[in-house]
Amino acid sequence: MKKLVIFDLDGTLLNTIADLAQSTNHALASLGYPTHDEPSYRFMVGNGINKLFERALPEGEKDETNVLRVRQAFIPYYNEHNADRSTPYPGIPKLLEHLQDNGLHLAVASNKYQAATSKLIAHYFPSIHFTAVLGQRDGVPVKPDPAIVQDILQACPTPLQEVLYVGDSGVDMQTAINAGVTACGVTWGFRPRAELENFHPAHIADRAEDIAAIAGFPLP
Question: Which helix (H) or strand (E) segment is 62 a member of?
Fold first, then answer.
């Protein structure tokens, strides 16, 4: 039985790929770079937006200066459009309400920059009282470094064996391993099941309700 469930955001709680793709393509096009189709972005996201931009830039253009130029074009646009087409995955709102009603602590650990992480959680899950909502912050290494999980545990001290970390990518599975908490991969996100299996997580969930049972509080 778990007492704290930490969720990744993009690809786990919310399907954000359309807005991420649109906003990155807007930034690239504004600087004269070629754009990408939406499915390609499923393999570019997950390591923070600077890594996203590096992956999206053409070969020979992937230097720090160009990454920062894309970032400067991306953030104002994404701040305005990050909820245009994003949506919770099926069953997620019900799952969060159920876990909260059963007294579990809930938290978010994302590589999305902090302002957007906070905005999206408040917009899509206003009735959920998260113990911590953490995104990428200056001076804090991104996942799979365990710093973000450690910061959550500072806010909500919990024995490691009573923590479940839920995410859709290998980055998330490695984060859980690095933090010493139980990993649960989800198959509805951006990355294939095989990527999750490579990290041998304790659990793989195919539906949101599976997480309730894994946490020890199955849905009725």
Answer: none
Q: What is the pLDDT of residues 171-198, one digit of tens each?
A: 999 999 999 999 999 999 999 999 999 9
Q: Which residues make Cβ contacts (< 8 Å) with residue 83, sequence separation at least 6?
A: 19, 119, 120, 123, 124
Q: pTM of whole model > 0.70?
A: yes
Could you tell me the residue ranges of all domains in the chain? Answer: 4-15+87-215, 17-81
Instruction: Reply yes or no: is the peptide bond before residue 192 cis, omega within 30 of 0.
Output: no
Convert the pLDDT of each residue in 120-139 to its tens digit: 999 999 999 999 999 999 99
The CATH class given to the 17-81 domain equals: mainly alpha
Q: Which residues touch 204 (CB under 8 Å, ≥6 apart)? A: 184, 185, 186, 187, 193, 196, 197
| The CATH number of domain 4-15+87-215, selected from 3.40.50.2000, 3.40.190.10, 2.30.130.10, 3.40.50.1000 | 3.40.50.1000
**Fold equal for 4-15+87-215 and 17-81:** no
Bridge partners for 131 per DSSP:
none
Instruction: Record the tokens describing residue 146, joined without a space.
Output: 């365990």
Q: Output the CA–CA distances (angstroms, integers) from residue 139 to 32, 50, 142, 217, in the order listed.
A: 31, 14, 9, 36
CA dist 160 and 158 (Å) reads 6
